Amino acid sequence: MYTSGKYSSRGPALIPRMKTKHRIYYITLFSVVLLGLIATGMFQFWPHSIESTADWTLDKRSVHDAPLIRLPVSSPIPERGDLSCRMHTCFDVYRCGYNPKNRIKVYIYPLQRFVDELGVPISSTGLSREYNDLLSAISDSDFYTDDITRACLFIPSIDVLNQNSLRIRETAQALAMLPRWDKGMNHLLFNMLPGGPPDYNTALDVPRDRALLAGGGFSTWTYRQGYDVSIPVYSPLSADVEQPEKQPGPRRYFILSSQTAIHREYRAELERLKEENGEALLLLDKCSNLSQGAASARKRCYKGQVYDYPQILQESSFCVVLRGARLGQAALSDVLQAGCVPVILADSYILPFSEVLDWKRASVVIPEEKLSEMYTILKSIPHRQVEEMQRQAHWFWEAYFSSMKAIGLTTLQIINDRIYPYAARTYEQWNNPPVVKWSSVNSPLFLPLIPPRAPGFTAVVLTYDRVESLFRVITEISKVPSLAKLLVVWNNQNKSPPEESLWPKIGVPLKVVRTKENKLSNRFFPYDEIETEAVLAIDDDIIMLTSDELQFGYEYFNYLYTYKMPGDIKNWVDAHMNCEDIAMNFLVANITGKAPIKVTPRKKFKCPECTAIDGLSLDQTHMVERSECINKFASVFGTMPLKVVEHRADPVLYKDDFPEKLKSFPNIGSL
Fold first, then answer.
1. pLDDT per position as a tens digit, 40-60
2. Which 8-state DSSP code applies to residue 460?
3. In what helix (H) or strand (E) does residue 412 lie, and over which residues does it extend?
4. Nearest to 167 by CA among 209, 208, 123, 213
5. CA atoms of 472 and 461, how far apart (whole Å)
6. Distance between CA 617 and CA 466 in Å, rounded?
7. Rounded CA separation 480/482 (Å)
8. What is the pTM of this model?
């Protein structure tokens, strides 16, 4: 028996002697395993920031095993990008279809290595670890399908997160070669670092046709509202640095600025604020006395004193997030993680996920020109509100910013909510931490949980016998670009509608529905002829509205009005022939908890053809009854759901001195 001194007490009875050749074999095997573990550990903890990796978890294979695709010089290049794209013009919702779970299906293209004719790759870094994490998270989610024929949304395996690593023309050619590209229809690209020197465009410069863009630096000029998704710039510190959660409350510093490479004008203004307010403001910068590297990136300095970053962020109530060369900054994610309220100074910046997140609850947005007033503005915020904002900021990070998985799945959920709006998450679900309980009204689940059968909107015109005025209304409404169908509700049982040949000739289907009873509620009945999600309900004497004004704002809740109106409100409206518009506003305000959106300037009611005989509103008792019905409806609802609103939505460039042809809605009217 062979033993070493180490095992002299118990070893001989337990360990048999190995033959030399076996011992060498096991030592070699152990060494290989040990080296493998060391290499794996080094890879896991190696500093990274949107950089290349050799792992591909989606297909369980190496990047190097992916097929090589050569791009001919003559390969087609997509169009640069259609700024007018919206979900109803550049996205085919019918590919999504109906499914019981109201969830889109997402297909990820297999990994390919694209090179030009000389064999040069289209990207200098290949597949980044961040993009690999993103695709892996999607492939593990309920959104994913490996059946391309079932897919509603397509995601390329071409990594465009960082534009700096891309060859623009060749990347565009690679996108155009995807088998289901179809001018980018129903394709989604993820980009966090757009543009490049010297001008740094705020959206990806790669030509992409009609593809949706989840972008990390959108401005109001490049963001397509309701189509693109504004996403955060991921901070790798989220994964590398663990910070204990700090409870909301007063912090050591009132304001902290920790960004490096701030524009000199902003730096000078912050220095002036520091002089005025002393220790309340901590102004940090890059440490000049430290060697460059991963360690120095996590340090900040002020007059020779070194601070750990991002840990120092937890020591301040407010943290400044200034625009840099790009609008989107990874610092925003770091600040949120620390539970520090971000003070955002980046004019025209579209905040991440602002389509669903209420940033007023978690941040303070200040115009860049008011940087000098920042201290005064922040001091005016009550302490209790600051604590709520600190709590909300950290929860935003935890739920939506903390990982590439969180960013990717949040993006898909937003797109899913657009396609299945009646199954969408509510404002409370998006913005309230799970521990907070709210007693808000539930969504109307009885509504059809399917995409609309047709795009655009249906105009429902209620009429009795004012034919001349009716025809004028029809003619004006028919000019609205989004009109899909016009439905005339003929409320006169004693008189037939005009002959077909007398009606205005318009470019959309026109249908006349004859009612059995003369009721005002007939205007809100969910007629089978209505195939669109949006409906414009209008009277036959509303001739003062322009087609631009109608295009700019519309939507009513017909199913709710007809089937779910509480109490005897609908019967009261029909009996008094009054207040159906007020009843609808009560209903919508009660369901949504929100005020109406006032669009376009106020206009005076004009109806030259109307007389005291045929105009309901000209009766002297009409306005008296409208006051009575408000009290009546409030008693039925048990509360006053109507909200006061001081906001009015006007189109971009509405009052600006620009040529009319540059305005989307030139015929809005004057104040």
1. 343 333 333 444 443 344 444
2. E
3. helix 404-419
4. 123
5. 12
6. 14
7. 6
8. 0.61
Q: What's the chain's Rg over C-alpha atoms?
A: 31
Q: What is the DSSP string of 361-390?
A: GT-EE--GGGGGGHHHHHHTS-HHHHHHHH
Lowest mean per-residue pLDDT among 245-249, 509-513, 518-522, 618-622: 618-622
Q: Specify whether the CB–CB gap between 143 and 103 falls below 8 A.
A: yes
pLDDT at residue 119, rounded to an integer: 93
556 in Cβ contact with 604 (< 8 Å) = no
Cβ atoms of residues 666 and 660 within 8 Å: yes
Query: Contact, 346 vs 356, CB < 8 A?
Result: no
**Locate tokens 């290949």: which residue?**
126
Q: Is the four-CA dihedral 266, 271, 272, 277 of positive or negative sign?
A: positive
List, for residues 618-659, the tens digit of each pLDDT value: 556 667 788 888 888 888 877 777 766 665 666 656 566 667
Strands 299-302 and 305-308: antiparallel
Contacts of 81 (CB under 8 A, 6+ apart): 203, 207, 208, 209, 210, 211, 213
d(Cα 519, Cα 492) in Å, to the nearest integer? 10
Question: Is the pLDDT assigned to residue 403 strictly greater than 60?
Answer: yes
Q: Which amino acid is at 638?
A: G
In this prediction, residue 413 carries a pLDDT of 97
**Average pLDDT of every residue of the chain:** 81
Residue recorded with tokens 């808000």: 440
DSSP secondary structure letter of residue 219: B
Output the six-digit token pair for 390: 């600190």
Nearest to 344 by CA among 315, 323, 317: 323
pLDDT reading at 509 higher than 80: yes
Model pLDDT, residue 51: 40
3-state secondary structure of 534: strand
Contacts of 363 (CB under 8 A, 6+ apart): 341, 342, 343, 344, 351, 389, 393
* Chain segment 200-223, per-residue pLDDT in tens: 899 999 999 999 999 999 999 999
Cα end-to-end distance, the chain, whole Å: 104
Give Cα 462 distance to the centre of its chain: 36
Burial code (b: 16+ CB inside 10 Å, e: under 16) for 155-176 equals bbbbbbbbbebbbbbbbbbbbb
> 532: part of which helix (H) or strand (E)?
strand 532-539
pLDDT digits (tens, 9 = 90+) for 160-189: 999 999 999 999 999 999 999 999 999 999
Question: CB atoms < 10 A from the CB of 59, how many?
Answer: 16
Say what the pLDDT of residue 161 is. 96
Q: What is the pLDDT of residue 1?
A: 35
Instruction: Annotate 491-527 with b (16+ C-beta within 10 A) or e (fewer).
Output: beeeeebeeeeebeeeeeebebbebeeebbbbbbbbb
